[in-house]
Design a protein that fits this description.
Radius of gyration: 21 Å
CATH topology: TIM Barrel
Distance between the termini: 40 Å
Strand content: 15-25%
Number of domains: 1
Number of helices: 7
Structural class: alpha/beta
């Protein structure tokens, strides 16, 4: 597969910042759920240490999952996480109410890994946040709904899954693996394939491996010409046994 060359039009707005994705792929760390109790729940607990490590290892955005039972804890953690890690924060949810509460608390990105639909997109648009949509439904249908909800295209990234990628939208790659149970090389191979195909936002629980793969591919693509001109027509070469 030939790498998709960087497109100068690739831009994604996250909060007040516009990311030039033609230069740098955005890595979003999919963190574990925020603990409501136990040794990892305190401000110096294990969860906060891992979240800080994700930022230190090169994650550009830190994403907290907001399952129904943990939504309150996740939303409550966002401002502290943003301030301590110095990174934009995101919430992973398909629930419109959770997305609205999270963006009100400071989340600048929402990961729709389910089927939140137009109401979720409208809530994200109203908050001025960014939406990353995981694979599933036909991307053209999803894109039409999101545009109808009023979300600007520069605040949208979309994982097409097995479908064709719509034109004019930033491509995402959402990694769905358990790094403790699955072979990490399989997930990293999928990330590499997606980035070569043009993905410029990668959501992953494996920050260390993903950052290494993505930055390596960026360096390779930056040094490989995207087109090779046809050789100029020349006369027959001279040499042993040859003549002009």
């Amino acid at each position: 597969m030939r790498p998709v060359p960087p497109d100068p039009a690739w831009r994604l707005r996250v909060g007040p910042r516009v990311h030039d994705l033609a230069v740098r792929t955005l890595v979003v760390a999919a963190l574990d759920p925020v603990p409501d109790a136990g040794p990892g729940a305190g401000p110096d607990g294990e969860w906060w240490t891992r979240a800080g490590d994700a930022a230190g290892f090169g994650a550009d955005v830190l994403a907290v999952p907001a399952a129904a039972a943990a939504a309150t804890g996740a939303v409550r953690a966002l401002p502290t996480l943003r301030d301590r890690a110095g990174r934009p924060v995101a919430v992973a949810t398909a629930a419109t109410a959770v997305a609205a509460a999270a963006t009100a608390a400071g989340a600048e990105m929402v990961l729709d890994l389910g089927s939140g639909g137009p109401d979720l997109a409208a809530a994200v648009a109203a908050a001025g946040a960014t939406l990353v949509v995981g694979p599933g439904a036909d991307p053209e249908v999803v894109l039409a709904r999101i545009r109808a909800a009023g979300l600007p295209v520069d605040r949208l990234a979309l994982d097409p899954g097995a479908h064709a990628m719509p034109a004019g939208v930033v491509r995402a790659c959402v990694v769905r693996v358990d790094p403790d149970a699955d072979d990490p090389t399989v997930a990293l191979a999928a990330v590499a394939e997606a980035v070569v195909a043009g993905a410029r936002v990668v959501v992953t629980p494996d920050v260390v491996g993903t950052v290494k793969v993505v930055r390596m591919l960026e360096a390779i693509v930056a040094r490989v010409p995207v087109s090779v001109p046809a050789p100029a027509r020349s006369e027959a070469p001279t040499g042993v046994g040859g003549s002009r």
